Amino acid sequence: YLVDLEDPRWSPARASSFLSKGSLYGAEIEWESWLSRSLSAGIWGRLSNSENDETDGCDVPYIPRLTGQARLDYLGRSGLRVGLTLSHTGQRYADRDNTVRLGSYSLLNLRAEKQFDPQNMLFVDVQNLTDKEYEYWQGYPGRSRTVRVGFEMRF
Predict the structure, then answer these.
(1) Sequence-separated (6 or more) residues with CB below 8 Å from residue 26
(2) Looking at residue 70, what is its pLDDT?
(3) What is the rounded distance in angstroms from the CA atom of residue 119 to the CA atom of residue 99?
């Protein structure tokens, strides 16, 4: 099993560590429901436990113990949909010996869509709405606020 040690999007050469013996197990839970005719909500969470047997049971790098997401969606009769999502990534280690710990972070994302017909949709997507500074990979900052606007056509 190869464990990435740096953000593969930014590394000139893949920096990874080979894990020959270890374990990863956990549990997930998910709930989704309509709260009204136009409002739905959902949550999911994952609790993970990893062990690197080569380092006397240290955690596998970059495997957070807790991750999760909560979302709220509005769906209007005119084809307007607005969604707000809060995602959380828990603390994790950045090295095999578990000496470098990266903090947890939560990000807020917003998406608005206007469906014109089954094939055409206009959307605005804002990731990291609050412009929170964070790092998933050690030494590589996470994305700042990112806004995408687009038109989707399905054939």
Answers:
(1) 46, 47, 48, 49
(2) 98
(3) 51
